[in-house]
Design goal:
Layout: E1 4-8, E2 16-21, E3 33-38, E4 43-48, E5 53-58, H1 61-66
Antiparallel strand pairs: 1-2, 3-4, 4-5
């Protein structure tokens, strides 16, 4: 909710959260992240329908290693 989460599902019976990002709220607005795209470099593009804009994220640490990105 309110952002994006990276979940390791290599073992589908035991999913494990390995990362997350929750954008800062703008004034009294609530964050509604609803579009997520990931490219081959590990960049994650998220947009917010409440008008706080687009955020570009990069997988790092355990999440990047799990995704096997170079």
């Amino acid at each position: 909710n309110a952002g994006v989460r990276a979940v390791d599902i290599r073992d589908p019976t035991h999913p494990k959260e390995v990362g997350y990002y929750i954008p800062a709220a703008s004034g009294s607005r609530v964050i509604y992240t609803n579009n997520v795209e990931v490219d081959e470099r590990g960049y994650i593009y998220i947009t917010d329908r409440a008008g706080t804009g687009m955020h570009i994220l990069e997988l790092t640490g355990a999440a990047r290693a799990i995704a096997a990105l170079k």
